Amino acid sequence: MSVNDLLTYENCYPSEMGGAFIGERAVMHGRDILNDLGHLSWLELVFFAATGFEGDREKIAIISYVWTGCSYPDPRLWNNRVAALAGSTRSTASLAVAAGVALSEATIYGHRANVRAIDFMIRAQQAVEKGVELEQFLIDEIDSGRRIYGYGRPIS
Known about the structure:
The chain is mainly alpha-helical. The chain has 8 helices and 3 strands. It has helices spanning about 5-10, 35, 40-50, 55-70, 75-90, 95-105, 110-130, 135-145; strands at about 20, 25-30, 30. A 3-stranded antiparallel beta sheet has the order 1-2-3. Helix 5 runs antiparallel to helix 6 (about 95-105). The mean pLDDT is about 80.
């Protein structure tokens, strides 16, 4: 790419995704975000941004419920807070960093817990579809030593 090619795009970068027209409107996939897409929930808008079409509202609602029901703190935030807390108590820098690193590997929260919670829900649904009572499935899970992940602490 030459300097002349770069100068061609200095004030305008063509995009099929959309664009912002300052003081006027913002367009995404050919639709005005505020006027055409104002009825979408946040997750529906994210889906539209990624795919270019409005998804099935019921399916996106289920994804939203799963996401909300399994929402754990973002693991990138809590380790920093722990390290900062240790620093604010005049702990040594190495202890503060060690505490943050130890927390980074915790399995009780973060994305690993989300995966385990979703895995549990999928297995529970499959068991119920095969005729197993949900209560019995839960008892079997606990008896086998498995943890049931969800919002809050896992049930051992």
